[in-house]
Design a protein that fits this description.
Number of strands: 37
Number of helices: 24
Shape: elongated
Largest sheet: 7 strands, mixed
Structural class: alpha+beta
Strand content: 15-25%
Mean pLDDT: 93
Low-confidence stretches: none
Length: about 800
């Protein structure tokens, strides 16, 4: 397995109301004083509500902590003048300069408001933050910025680091440009709540734009902070640089393409969305109107930046998406069209197909190609720990991990430094995220847990400090945690997730049949291949529905033993799959025969009771026994009749396989096959089929499929018909709502409705859309709703995302 050490990832929640520019700059000022703060993200709220698009974004960012921060009394006084009652010694109200002096000298700050905390809880609910957890309760370890100094290590306490000269957002810069500069450069000096939008001439604005968009190396000199004499302007780094001691940016790439996001708009959500993308994937650009993007002619500096961004997409090395939280779709399309027109003046033809306009709600936040700040030289160390795998597939460490000691001497000498450890399990089967805690991820010790743990974007994460008893005076290396971790199988992950809602899971009747076939084969994939592959049409013909054998098998490719029970010879398989080679069919048959899922044998007639029957090869000798009357028979020509020279082999499907087909159990398997083929290939596909979600002894929901692939959790409903269950619209909506509840309980990213028919019945999409829209979703909103048709073998599969707006 791989171990990486890094700084904390933190999401700071702030008020996105009328004064959001100041509160955002205030949060960035706090981050600028913290080790790793350049990687922090900001999440605004409006009266306690966080936009669903931002909730999806921060879930992809995967913070260790979601925090609010305390405001100062002077801030409260500025935005709510006179609301505080301040009295002089004689009991009279303080006013004017005396009032401000009292406030400025008080050094008193105010706890976050209930609205701030409500918004923070919304964000934390969709993330996998650190929690102190037992089987009964759990609570977040850190909820407020600066709660414990070691969780937010101060840069000023870094040995040998002098925090002085740099480029930063000046306290006097407010408005949109003040936020843009504070996000790009940092802010060492506390922002001024009275600061407004800086007034810049066209030259300085162009220089600032080029610097913000990465096409210019130097900002305007007014951004320089030079308390020490002799510092050359070109030698100044950004304020953020002081937060990166010992850190390096690491990108986990699955492919070489780059996804750039251009966010237009002037709201707090627009700004936050761009920073979230930048800190999760890089290549996130915010274009507020203060840069001149609302002018009739786009400024040349903006065009130069767009040229750099779009040129990568033009060369095929990346993609460009233009989005906004504040602009409607039609306006967003106009913005992209305008960018294309302006770029075509420079490029000529071939610009019309570059880029796409997508609303913030429709943005996809993939789990791959992510970046984070890691400790240099220790971000990808291979380690070996003995493990065992139980019957469900859960992997457990048998010995503790080695201590995550720092090799960087400067970091090691910081008096209050907590770093974080990422453990990536080797087989790519880890189910990531979902809010699981140390209660599920740490092996039980019988006492206090050695540390905290959480399911994170790369595997399992834990902090570098112990939470059990630590004796005084022990060596520093012994103060580091050495946990034994568990990597839950999909089945155990589902049970752990359901336990958060007082639920458990169990196999349905159809699920038991599929599980039995898996045990016979030894793996689930073989069952999927058999019941969704080229042998499926032939297996279905074993349900002999004609009155006579010749009606069922006119080409003598099989024999009807009795009603709904037929067996096939080899030609029965080849005629049903003409596009598949005989060699491939032979291989598939032999694999099923070895597993006992298909049985080879003879069709014989008893000389006593005249019963026609299938006798498996394992029961046949020169003498064989009738399955009906137990009479002994000779294996001679009257028993098999034709052909004269020797009997022909026939093939029978195991009774459990026949029952699976009778219950249309092949449709969920076909959906599983489709999802495995289209899952992106970033991780191993795995699923659970035909399970019930149970409270007490009562099944709440039956799921045809729960799948996990490439970081995406999918709840699937698979139908053999082209319509959903229920005779009325209300009954169908009730069934859809059950699947919606399952999607919430299992934190699903997609809810898929699939049919083996070529297309859904007219009206099915509208019914799904209306029922999903009427469901009471959590603040993050619904998962992606997808309709799939044509799952039957040799059919053309179609997939469509159902738009709810």
């Amino acid at each position: 397995m791989q171990r990486g050490l890094r700084c904390a990832r933190v999401a700071i929640v702030f008020d996105g109301g009328p004064h959001w520019s100041y509160w955002a700059r205030r949060a960035l000022h706090l981050a600028s004083q913290t080790w790793g703060g350049t990687g922090f993200v900001l999440v605004p709220h409006q009266q306690g509500r966080v936009a669903p698009a931002l909730l999806r974004a921060v879930r992809a960012y995967d913070p260790d902590y979601v925090v609010t921060y305390r405001s100062e009394l002077v801030d409260f006084e500025y935005f709510s003048p006179g609301a505080l009652k301040l009295l002089a010694e004689d009991g009279s109200a303080l006013t004017g300069v005396a009032r401000w002096n009292a406030l400025a000298g008080s050094h008193i700050d105010m706890a976050p408001t209930e609205i701030d905390e409500m918004a923070r809880d919304q964000v934390a609910a969709v993330c996998s933050t650190y929690k102190l957890a037992t089987a009964e309760v759990s609570s977040e370890d850190v909820q407020q910025y600066g709660h414990r100094a070691e969780d937010f290590p101060a840069t000023v306490r870094m040995p040998g680091l002098a925090v002085d000269n740099c480029v930063q957002a000046p306290p006097s810069w407010g408005g949109l440009l003040g936020v843009a500069v504070a996000s790009h450069a940092g802010s060492l000096d506390a922002p001024n709540p009275a600061a407004g939008e800086p007034e810049l001439d066209d030259g300085n604005l162009a220089q600032l734009t080029r610097w913000l968009m990465g096409t210019g190396s130097l900002p305007p000199e007014s951004l320089a902070r030079r308390p020490l004499d002799g510092a050359g302007f070109s030698d100044l780094g950004r304020a953020w640089d002081y937060t990166t001691t010992g850190l390096t940016g690491v990108v986990r790439m699955r492919d070489s393409s780059e996804s750039a996001l251009v966010v237009v708009g002037d709201t707090a959500e627009d700004f936050a969305l761009a920073r979230l993308w930048q800190r999760t994937y890089m290549n996130g650009i915010w274009l507020p109107s203060a840069l001149g993007t609302d002018r009739d002619d786009l400024p040349r500096a903006v065009l130069t930046g767009l040229d750099k961004i779009f040129s990568k997409a033009r060369s095929g090395r990346g993609t460009v998406t233009v989005t906004s939280t504040s602009l409607p779709p039609e306006k967003l399309s106009e913005v992209l069209a305008r960018f294309r027109v302006e770029l075509s003046k420079h490029w000529g033809a071939g610009v019309d197909e570059i880029g796409e306009a997508v609303t913030a709600q429709e943005l996809v936040w993939p789990r791959h190609n992510t970046m984070h700040l890691a400790i240099g030289e220790q971000f990808d160390d291979p380690i070996s720990v003995p493990t065992e795998v139980d019957g469900s597939g859960t992997t457990t460490m048998l010995t503790p991990l080695p201590p995550p000691a720092l090799e960087n001497r400067v970091l090691a000498q910081h008096p209050e430094l907590t770093w974080h450890v990422d453990i990536a399990w080797p087989d790519g089967r880890s189910v990531l995220g979902g809010g699981l805690t140390g209660h599920e991820l740490l092996t039980p010790t019988g006492g206090l847990p050695v540390t905290l743990a959480r399911s994170s974007r790369y595997g399992t994460s834990y902090p570098s400090k112990r939470y059990d008893f630590v004796p005084g005076g022990i060596p520093a290396v012994n103060r580091l945690p050495r946990p034994k971790l568990r990597d839950l199988s999909l089945a155990d992950w589902v049970d752990a997730k359901l336990a958060q809602h007082d639920l458990t899971s169990r196999l349905s009747s159809a699920g038991h049949k599929a599980a039995q076939l898996e045990r016979m084969y030894g793996d689930r994939q073989s069952v999927i291949d058999l019941f969704s592959g080229p042998l499926l049409p032939a297996l279905r013909t074993m349900d002999a529905k004609g009155e006579r054998s010749d009606d069922c098998y006119p080409k003598q490719e099989g024999v009807q033993i009795r009603a709904h029970y037929g067996v096939l010879n080899f030609s029965g398989f080849t005629t049903q799959a003409p596009q598949t080679s005989k060699e491939q069919i032979r291989q598939d048959l032999d694999k099923a025969l070895r597993a006992g899922v298909i049985r080879r044998g003879l069709v014989l007639q008893c000389v006593v009771c005249t019963e026609i029957q299938f006798q498996p090869i394992d029961r046949i000798g020169q003498r064989w026994t009738c399955e009906r009357c137990d009479a002994g028979n000779d294996l001679d020509q009257p028993a098999w009749k034709k052909p004269l020279q020797e009997p022909g082999w026939y093939y029978d499907l195991h009774p459990v396989g026949r029952q699976l087909l009778d219950q249309n159990g092949e449709v969920p398997l076909a959906l599983a096959s489709y999802l495995a083929r289209t899952g992106g290939g970033g991780s191993t596909y795995q699923d659970l089929a035909e399970i019930e979600l149970v409270r007490g002894r009562t099944a709440q929901v039956e799921l045809d499929l729960f799948a996990y692939c490439d970081g995406v959790r999918i709840v699937g409903e698979a139908k053999s018909a082209n319509h959903l269950s229920g005779n009325t619209g209300g009954e169908r909506a009730k069934e859809i709502h059950k699947k919606c509840r399952a999607a919430v309980w299992l934190d699903a990213d997609e809810l898929v409705f699939a049919t083996s028919e070529a297309e859904w019945k007219p009206g099915a999409e509208a019914g799904i859309r209306d029922a999903v829209a009427a469901f009471e979703w959590p603040p993050i909103g619904p998962p992606v709703i997808r309709m799939v048709a044509g799952l039957d073998f040799a059919g053309t599969v179609t997939s469509k995302v159902v738009l709810l707006q």
